[in-house]
Design a protein that fits this description.
heterotetramer, A alpha/beta, B mainly alpha, C mainly alpha, D alpha+beta, A: alpha/beta, Rossmann fold, 2 domains, 18 helices, about 30% helix, globular, C: mainly alpha, MetI-like fold, about 0% strand
């Protein structure tokens, strides 16, 4: 390294409770350069990024090495000026108790007037009218852009981005990518921690890969492309749902949705947050009472309440939930999770159940010893595989998968999707793949696009997901589908406010007669 | 956050429990029989001196742990158990149906009538009706039920919607499995913590009832505190020993209850 | 907001009605009655019967309840079995107890906030642990023991404050502020410790919250972070803690009042229940219950007003079912 | 009263509940605290009506504002508003004192006494007055302003003692005692500011017939908690507190200008147990005697009373006229007692001792008594209950022994009270005859003989175990003088009190 970089990390060693988190990391970012960091969960990429900001989270200690930003050391505890930070969860990052204007007025320790606030909002492509709102009154994309505005408050020469689009749906992701691209064009250096190399490829000049606290690779990114395949082979219909109407209380989120899945077919249900995807999946599974629905599996009509379905019906349609951390009982070993459905739905017990459980684990790519482990001893991907195995234990005809890959890192995600593909091909299993991720949807045979509780597109993957890619890898055709009322997807200021689920969770929880209603 | 207090509290509680359980067996004298004159200072025969009626304080302390523990624990367990049933019912029906909250109306609202009566008034009313330890147990239980129910409902509400619980429902598990194997293990942390809080409240109720002159007589530590008050200038140990023991018991249980909450959050995270 | 308040008030009123019925019947079922207690050793079965008839205790309990409830609606709290109108017995005493509870609450607010912040902003530090241990100890010790020790030190030992609250007739405790010091202090040590524990824990958690970290990482000065990000997050919890403490102080001053001979409701409450003076006990239940209902209502409204997600919601917050 | 008492004084007296605290200070310095008397229980229900008086503060206040016809002084009737009484046939005539005026200046006349009698017999009263059992209040005849004739319902041998024992105060013709009102009496002090359960300020009534009182003002303060009463005196907020715990005597008064005072031998309270003779085993006199032979009275006195008292002789009434202090309690004889129990077939019979703490030490004495019975091999158990349900008839009937304290009341009162409840009474023909004679005979010697007989019966086969006579202690500033005992040292007469 000859030219003095904006960021110079040299042989950084950080420990947490005796464990080495970073093991001699070396990293450079030149002025105006965009550098991406990728790696699996726990590889130390977030810790590296925070170290650049002079911030060590609780329990992390500085052992050796230096971090210089603009020539000044930032460790220990001397945060650099002129660096902005953007995290992955805008709903949690924004101060829920202050309006956008109040936050921006004082952001970065500098007071600015009304015009200054409006200018800052303008830089991230938001209208000034948004300033009087609270964070929870903004959509996810707007929240993240407000957070970006705060990061820009000190006019930083460098932005540290920690998976800034992970939690966002396709639309919001497109918006944030666009703003970041324009900042990069304006000469702001980026240190971008990414989910996967493909997404980052178009956004960075250089890609650094970390594993186990070390930098293992560094070089220019390879441009990404996902392959759109279509094997639309007509098959017998195993799942047919029609006229699904449902919601919560007086709020309707599904307005007459129709869906059919053939044997061996993978159907992706794609939509932005709050479009009723999850509700649809839960109505199919009989876990959510619908106002009107007809669900048939192999021609037999299912009762809307899973508890009133017959045993074969329950077995025929299985549901796999989103969060791997909640999918399994934290105090029950994998064996119990598999044995119960075997016993209740297939009447297998004892040695027969053990053998079948081992077989199921093998199907999902886990070793038989996994049976004795508790969920806490498994990784997120392994848990999701166990969750799949539990569903498969029932020998279902249809598998309804609700965002089963959203919490997984890319490698694991691809493995799980591959597994689902194999199951379809081998066993003629019909799969409903509910997702907000275009890349996930692209692996399906057919895509159903859901917007505002209506089906707005239903067809083979290339037809629906084809076309130009916007920043962030979102097909422009899809954006038009999802935003039918806005001809130009780059128009600022989305009108439809999606209440953020996280906002409700941050409400105070002192237990009393009058704890805030949670339902 | 690692809180070293947890280990200290466990140690203190363990020692106290040993003293409480073994105490009645090793008490040097009959705790009810006088061994000397009242308010005698400590002697080799009576290591902590004698009480207001000339009984051996050490023997009374050793003898009095078990009734106090028994009363407080019985009241706390009864209150927590009732609260758990009500809280789980409310969380299950109201949390899963997504429509009405009728169970809350039918179960939790009536409990609120108990919650709006100042606890001391409730204790007075109950102790007048049911004297003795049974009354104290009931008083502790009733003062605790409304809060326990709310704590447990709050703890169970996020659990009933967890995917593994729904999976259990979907595959047709019976109520015993769902409550016993799916729900209870996951609300155990808050349940234990609530039990700890109820227990500490119970200790308080026992002493306060004695102070107001409505508690049962006996040797339990709460009664010892109250009996010591008039003679505190003559024999400070009479007050100091039970107060310190009760405070240690309450503090160690509180610390452990806090820890139980922290750990249960970790399990669910 | 108006609908919320109205709804809660209606619920509170319904609870009070249910409560009054429960207590009326409950007290009636107790062994012994006012006639027993009044006659004491001079009771004979004949005199007991006569006294019961005179006091109206021989009528069915529901008839007596209806009588009483009717009177209550006309603003008549009834007559004590001693022949004195209940309102005359309770009048000034309720105000005095309210004064004690109110003063304690008012002092508790800044104390618990300052101490809670002082400790909670540095979680795990030595001062944090010191505060945690001290507050635990004061929460664990019965307040009448604390009060007794305060009397020994400040009244008998140092002689700087009165040991008993002697308030002349016609005067209020405010005319003798010195008499209020020790009772309020005894209550504060208990209740402020509880509030400090809650507020400290909330602050310690908020300091680690993502939005606080985000503000720090983007260069917001520490003072601004505390003022803009930490305090607003603590406020709803603190408000609840304060108002719940106020609710607990309604009727929670009894033990301390007794130690100091403070002219509040404490002594009336104990005597009324123990002597089976049903009208006085009933009136106290209604007055105290109403106080608690109001405090809880205020807590609910306070939390809503101080939490933007709740304040801006037209309806209850959106459901988080998945 | 040979001490010279200052004329300009403020006497402070505080009381609530079971005890009484009084304090006296000079009112020259306005900063000085008021006089205090303590009492306990039901403070807010305190009443100006002297016939409702229930707490020591009530007594201390009303006894100073009102005068009685006869008072008790050292066990004998002392003429107050009455100067004498003449026995008649089925009636007696009371001669009233001349020159007495009410606080409002009007003269005291016989009509006032007649009104008082009608008032206390009124069916409106929550509790019937005990005099209504003896006097035909409807037929009272006012002879002239100084003379009144009162018919009796049953023979009354010593009307002066009857009035004195009942503690009947005289109220003014037409008086009512509405809350918030005031009270007009003939007593040495008139009522000033008053707040039930807190304080009453009493100002000197210079025109009192017994000579002007000494203190300018007496403040009666109600304090429930015994420690609070003591603290009030120790910290100078009160001058005198009556009925303080024995521990105070042990620790000392706590200041050079303070002292602990004992009310003296005749003012001791008799503490004991009463055996229920309506059920086994105490329907058998041998079982009663056996238990009396088991009790270690000195051990109880040493522990429950901390030695502030003496052992009793198993008879209530110590300090009263006609009390027979020559009677000795049965000597402790465990072997003899066991033999008696065997004869009575009472070995192994369960004994329940019922107690409530309506007098300090009741529960403690019960616990120790039960221990003594157990040590002698009896199956005894304490049943400690709240004050309210203590006298519930069903429970009393099922219990074998119960605690019972009695102050130094006249024997009439003592024997009437102990016979009021079937469970407390001793159903003995000789006793009944003797007591009836003592009540009704106007002849002094016959009365004395009758009381002697009655007490002999109780000593021989009675159901009382009076184990101790407890001192009544007060804590006081040394310069407080003139506090006299009339009815009870627990609520002394403050009419002559002052600061020396």
């Amino acid at each position: 390294m000859t030219a003095p970089g904006l960021v110079e990390v040299r042989d950084l060693v950080l420990c947490a409770g005796g464990r080495t988190v970073l093991d001699g990391v070396r990293l450079d970012v030149a002025a105006g350069e965009a550098v991406g960091i990728v790696g699996a969960s726990g590889s130390g990429k977030t810790t590296t990024a925070l170290a650049v900001l002079g911030h060590l989270r609780d329990g992390i200690t500085h052992v050796a090495g230096t971090v210089h930003v603009a020539g000044a050391p930032v460790l220990p505890g001397r945060p650099p000026r002129g660096v902005g930070y953007l995290g992955q969860d805008p709903g949690a990052s924004l101060n829920p108790y202050r309006t956008v204007r109040a936050v921006l007025t004082a952001a970065g320790g500098v007071r600015r007037d009304r015009a200054g606030v409006d200018a800052l909002l303008g830089r991230v492509g938001l209208p000034a009218g948004l300033a009087r709102r609270y964070p929870h009154q903004l959509s996810g994309g707007q929240q993240q852009r407000v957070a970006l505005a705060i990061a820009l408050a000190r006019d930083p020469g460098l932005l540290v981005l920690d998976e800034p689009t992970t939690g966002l749906d396709v639309l919001a992701r497109a918006d944030v990518h666009r703003e970041l691209a324009s900042l990069r064009a304006a000469g702001v250096a980026l240190l971008w921690i990414g989910h996967d190399a493909e997404t980052l490829a178009a956004n960075v000049d250089r890609l650094v890969t970390v594993a186990d606290g070390r930098v293992v690779a560094s070089g220019p990114p390879e441009p990404a492309r996902f392959t759109l395949t279509s094997e639309a082979a007509p098959a017998e219909v195993v799942l047919a749902a029609s006229g699904i109407v449902g919601g919560y209380g007086a709020t309707r989120v599904l307005h007459g949705v129709d869906l059919h899945v053939g044997a061996g077919e993978r159907v992706a249900v794609l939509g932005a947050s709050g479009t009723g995807k999850t509700t649809l999946a839960r109505v199919l599974a009989g876990l959510h009472p619908a106002a009107a629905d007809t669900v048939t599996v192999d021609g037999a009509t299912l009762h809307p309440d899973v508890r009133r379905r017959t045993r074969p019906q329950r077995a025929a349609l299985q549901y796999v939930a989103q969060s791997p951390s909640e999918a399994l009982h934290p105090r029950q070993p994998v064996r119990t999770a598999l044995h119960r459905p075997l016993r209740l739905l297939r009447n297998l017990r004892g040695a027969a159940a053990d053998a079948e459980a081992a077989a199921l684990l093998e199907v999902v790519g886990l070793s038989a010893d996994t049976a004795g482990l508790l969920p806490a001893e498994l990784s997120g991907g392994q848990r999701q595989r166990v969750s799949l195995a539990r569903a498969l234990a029932a020998r279902p005809r249809v598998l309804v998968c609700d965002e089963v890959t959203s919490a997984l890192d890319p490698g694991t995600r691809d493995a799980v999707l591959g597994l689902l593909g194999r199951l379809c091909a081998q066993d003629g299993l019909g799969v409903v793949l509910v997702t907000h991720d275009v890349e996930v949807a692209a692996t399906a045979d057919r895509v159903v696009v859901l917007a505002e509780g209506h089906v707005v597109a239903d067809g083979p993957v290339p037809d629906v997901l084809g076309g130009d890619l916007l920043p962030g890898g979102v097909p422009s055709h899809l954006v038009e589908l999802l935003r039918p009322d806005v001809a130009d997807p780059t128009v600022r200021g989305t009108v439809n406010v999606v209440p953020s689920r996280r906002a409700a969770v941050t409400a105070p929880t002192v237990v009393s007669d009058d704890s805030p209603p949670t339902g | 956050m690692r809180w070293p207090g947890t280990r200290v509290a466990s140690g203190v509680l363990a020692v106290l429990l040993v003293v409480i359980v073994v105490g009645p067996l090793v008490a040097p004298y009959d705790p009810a029989a006088p061994v000397g004159l009242p308010y005698e200072p400590p002697t080799p025969q009576a290591l902590l001196g004698t009480d207001a009626l000339g009984r051996d304080l050490l023997s009374r302390i050793l003898d009095g742990g078990l009734p106090m523990l028994g009363t407080a624990l019985a009241g706390a367990v009864a209150g927590s158990a009732l609260g758990t049933v009500a809280g789980l019912l409310a969380a299950w029906w109201d949390g899963r149906s997504g429509r009405s909250r009728w169970v809350e109306g039918a179960v939790l609202r009536p409990l609120d009538t108990l919650a709006i009566v100042p606890p001391m008034l409730l204790v007075l009313l109950i102790l007048t009706a049911f004297t003795g330890h049974a009354g104290l147990v009931l008083a502790v239980a009733l003062t605790g039920v409304p809060l326990s129910a709310r704590v447990l409902r709050a703890a169970a509400a996020p659990v009933v919607t967890r995917a593994h619980v729904e999976a259990a429902v979907a595959r047709g598990e019976g109520p015993a499995w769902i409550v016993g194997r799916e729900l209870l293990p996951l609300v155990a942390g808050p349940l234990v913590a609530d039990l700890g809080i109820r227990f500490v409240a119970a200790i308080y109720v026992v002493t306060a009832a004695g102070f107001l002159g409505v508690g049962p007589s006996g040797t339990d530590w709460g009664t010892l505190i109250v009996e010591a008050l008039p003679g505190v200038e003559l024999a400070p140990l009479l007050l100091a020993v039970p107060v310190v023991l009760v405070a240690l018991l309450a503090v160690s249980v509180t610390v452990l209850a806090d820890d139980a909450v922290r750990r249960s959050r970790a399990v669910l995270a | 907001m108006i609908r919320l308040v109205a709804g809660r008030l209606a619920t509170g009123a319904a609870l009070l009605v249910l409560l009054s019925l429960l207590v009326f019947v409950g007290v009636d079922l107790l062994p012994g009655d006012a006639a027993n207690a009044r006659l004491g050793a001079s009771a004979t079965p004949a005199r007991l019967a006569e006294t019961r008839q005179r006091l109206g205790l021989d009528r069915p309990v529901l008839v007596r309840y209806a009588d009483w409830a009717g009177g209550l609606l006309r603003g008549d709290l009834g007559t004590s079995v001693s022949g004195t109108p209940v309102s005359a017995i309770l009048g000034g005493r309720v105000a005095n107890s309210a004064l004690l509870a109110g003063l304690t609450t008012i002092l508790l607010v800044p104390i618990s906030l300052v101490v809670g912040m002082w400790a909670g902003l540095r979680p795990g530090s030595r001062r944090d642990r010191g505060v945690a241990v001290a507050s635990l100890l004061f929460v664990a010790a019965p307040e009448f023991v604390t009060a007794g020790l305060l009397v020994l030190v400040f009244a008998i030992g140092l002689g700087v404050l009165p040991a008993v609250s002697l308030i002349p007739p016609g005067a209020g405790p405010l005319d003798r502020p010195a008499a209020l010091v020790l009772p309020v202090l005894a209550l504060l040590l208990l209740h402020a410790s509880y509030a400090v524990r809650m507020i400290r824990a909330t602050i310690a958690a908020t300091v680690r919250a993502p939005h606080v970290e985000f503000a720090r990482l983007n260069g917001e000065p520490p003072r601004d972070v505390v003022r803009h990000a930490v305090l607003p997050a603590v406020l709803p919890v603190a408000l609840q803690v304060w108002l719940l403490t106020a609710a607990a102080l309604v009727g929670g001053t009894v033990l301390v009042e007794r130690v100091f001979g403070y002219p509040g409701i404490g002594e009336v409450l104990v005597t009324a229940v123990r002597t089976g003076d049903l009208p006085v006990a009933q009136a106290l239940v209604m007055v105290l219950g109403a106080g608690v209902v109001v405090a809880l209502l205020a807590a609910d409204v306070g939390v809503r007003l101080s939490t933007p997600t709740l304040r801006t919601a037209e309806q209850p917050a959106p459901v988080a079912f998945r | 009263m040979s001490r010279a008492l200052s004329r300009r004084q403020l006497l402070r007296y505080a009381g609530v509940g079971a005890g009484l605290a009084a304090a006296v200070t000079a009112c020259g310095s306005p900063a000085s605290a008021p006089t205090v008397v303590g009492s306990g229980g039901g403070g807010a229900a305190e009443s100006l009506d002297p016939f409702i008086s229930g707490t020591p503060s009530d007594y201390a206040r009303n006894w100073t504002v009102f005068d009685e016809l006869f008072a008790i002084s050292d066990g004998n009737p002392l003429p107050r508003l009455a100067v004498g009484v003449d026995q008649g046939d089925g009636a007696f005539t009371v001669r009233l004192r001349d020159g007495v005026t009410w606080h409002d200046g009007s003269p005291f006349v016989a009509d006032d006494v007649a009104y008082t009698l009608r008032y206390l017999a009124s069916p409106e009263r929550p509790v019937p007055h005990e005099l209504t059992g003896f006097l035909d209040t409807a037929q009272v005849q006012v002879r002239d302003p100084r003379t009144i004739t009162i018919p009796t319902l049953q023979p009354v041998g010593d009307p002066a003692m009857l009035f004195a024992g009942a503690g009947m105060r005289v109220i003014k013709d037409g008086a009512t005692f509405a809350p918030g009102g005031t009270a007009v009496g003939t007593g040495p002090y008139r009522l000033g500011a008053f707040e039930p359960g807190r304080q009453a300020r009493l100002t000197r009534y210079d025109a009192h017939w017994d000579g002007a009182p000494f203190a300018d003002e007496i403040v009666v303060i109600s304090l429930d908690d015994p420690s609070a009463r003591v603290n009030a005196v120790r910290t100078g907020e009160a001058d005198y507190a009556a009925d303080v715990p024995f521990t105070v005597a042990r620790t000392g008064a706590g200041g050079d200008d303070l002292e602990v005072r004992s009310a003296g031998d005749t003012q001791r309270t008799s503490l004991g147990f009463v055996m229920n003779t309506t059920i086994r085993p105490f329907d058998d006199p041998r079982a009663r005697r056996a238990v009396r032979m088991l009790v270690d009275r000195q051990a109880l006195v040493d522990r429950v009373l901390l030695g502030y008292g003496v052992t009793g002789n198993d008879l209530f009434g110590h300090g009263a006229r006609y009390f027979d202090d020559t009677v000795k309690a049965p000597a402790t004889d465990v072997a003899g007692a066991k033999a008696l129990l065997e004869q009575a077939g009472a070995v192994g019979a369960p004994l329940v001792v019922r107690s409530a703490e309506y007098e300090a030490g009741m529960n403690g004495s019960t616990e120790l008594f039960v221990e003594q019975l157990k040590a002698a091999g009896l199956d005894a158990r304490a049943e400690i209950v709240g004050v309210q349900e203590y006298f519930a008839p069903d429970a009393l009937a099922a219990t074998h022994l119960l605690t019972f304290p009695l102050g130094p009341f006249p024997l009439d009162v003592t024997y009437a009270r102990s016979a009021a409840f079937p469970t407390l009474a001793l159903n003995d023909a000789e006793l009944k005859t003797a007591v009836a004679t003592a009540f009704s005979t106007p002849d002094e010697a016959a009365r004395a003989a009758a009381w002697k007989t009655a007490q002999a019966v109780m000593a021989d086969r009675g159901n009382w175990i009076v184990w101790g006579l407890a001192d009544t202690l007060a804590i006081s500033r040394r310069n407080v003088a003139g506090i006299e005992v009339r009815d009870s040292a627990k609520y002394p007469y403050l009419g002559k009190a002052g600061l020396a």
